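Page 42, continued from yesterday. The earlier attempt failed because a stray header line got pasted into the input along with the sequence. Redoing it now with the clean sequence only.
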Amino acid sequence: MKKFLYLALLPLMMLMMTLTSCSKDDDSPLDGFDYPAETLYGTWKITKAAGFSWMYQTTTATFNSDGSYVGKGYFGNGSGTYTAKGKTISCYVSGELYCTYVVKSLSGTTAELIMSTPESSTTLTLTCTKQ
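This time it went through. Structure tokens are written below.
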């Protein structure tokens, strides 16, 4: 009986070992992102906020293919890393979540995003153009 139980469980144990020991060598900051990577890479400038023309200082975010980003303007100047999964882009500074963008639309040189920060329950709808 013990031999039968062992033989029955052997395939399950091998499957579990295979699934837990595999790792991807080509992890990307855009793993599982709903849009082509090339669409996100580059510098984006805010042109509208909540449907109104952006009247504050020039504000940009640059997303690089290596998972780094640089932000300049109204929300501060700095750099960090980002990940993108599904429709969500999460930006980090010194390993801490700085802000999150939920992509409403992203095509060519235009994006509509909903921005939020961990400190606030308020969101801001932004329209951006790729520079």
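Notes: Confidence is low (pLDDT under 50) at residues 1-25.
Reminder to self: strip header lines before submitting.
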